[in-house]
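Side project, low priority. Logging it here so it doesn't get lost.
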Amino acid sequence: MAMPLSALIRQRAIQMPFRRNYFNMTDTQQTDAGVHHHRHTDDLLAHIKGLLEKQQLVSGLVERSEMPRHQLVQSLVERQQSNQLRQQINRMHPADIAFALESLPLEERSQLWDQVDRGHMGAVLVELSDGVRESILRDMGREDVMRAAWQLETDELADLLPQLPSHIIPELMESLEHLDREQVRTAASFPEHSVGALMDFDIVTVRVDNTLEVVLRFLRRRGELPEDSTLLMVVDRTGHLKGTLSLEALLVNEADTVVGDIMNPDPLAFHTDDPLEEAAAAFERYNLITAPVTNVHGQLLGCLNVEAVLEYVQEESKKDILAQAGLREEEDIFAPVLQSGRNRWPWLGLNLVIAFIASRIIGQFEDTIAQVVALAALLPITANVGGNAGNQAMALVIRSLALNQLNTSNFGRLLSKELAIGVMNGLIWGGIMAFATYLLYQRVDLAVIMLLAMVITLMVAALTGVLIPVSLKQAGQDPVLGSSILITGITDTLGFLIFLGLAAFILH
């Protein structure tokens, strides 16, 4: 039985604070939620593997048995097992099916995907990571791809479009209704990390001069509200955004009240070309659930919902973790060996070049090391500490860039601060290591070398930790991309040069 419209609106309005409280949970509550989710995913994956193993076991036993009409019996048993597996799998949430697919090796992944109902394929594809989705789409037939695409919303289809086989796209676009086709083309035309690329076209608009009675009558005729809708968009006759009307205001005011009198005339709205990272920061700062999206002329095109923002933030977090190690975001943990290896070659090659340079630097000081063998034992200390210090500074800078906190006006102050931290840590920890060096080797000159090397190396680490991500940003690149590899390699190399250079100067 469908829920009455008034009850649905009231339910949405009541649920809003609870959704906001979800994002304001305490650390203990978040930890408990994380533990529960971890247990759930572990149990889910074990259950899926158990179903697949049971199917293989039963099929193997029947195949090895000798009985009349063996082929018929085997076919019936396999069909029965497949039906049972299919029924259990398709009772699961699409996100859980996607999680299982991403966690299984290629052969088992293929077996599981074969059991997914064609009516659920679209929803599962949306939940998959890019790498796994690409591998599954590659093995799907034309009819299955078309069927899955028809199940998606226009914004989801626009996101999926670049991964579809090129020969299917024209036919798919022609099969869509005119409005859907235009919405897909519009969404696909925006840059990947812009608000327009993730906006939802399914919105409810009302006129600024309508009464609430007219609005309620319109909503009753419409029959339903868009998913996650908490606001009605208020527009004029030309489609320009004039404000927003909350469901709460719609419920508590008199029926003859004019929308323009109770609407929010100055809502936080985004343009289609606004960067998604800025939108995500705004959603976090103002606890937004949904926000209108306009073009440069102020005409309403759609809305941006918190679900889309959360998915973007999660994907960016995953990408950043991989990018720091020089890996692509679409890396599939069960991809073929050659493919995964090829993805890692560029940064491994760069790391090899840096390591070769470091080795040649050490080679230039062979005579110095031969005179004082203790230098070889002390050599890694400054380099390792410098690498860690550089990565600490890098993490701070990347976070500041992501939140738009770092700009030309405060860059100099941040750089000065990091250099000061480098000097302070160099004096403290360099002093400790100098004392330890003196105790071990009873040589003041080695202690002085260690102190100076620590101070200079940590200053250099601070410089690289700040300058590398900022330089990548200025060059139009992702500041996270390979930054950890670059900083570690550079600080190690310069650490060797600083330590051995000081040793050569002081000891000679």
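Brief comment: The CA atoms of residues 205 and 233 lie 5 Å apart.
Revisit when time allows.
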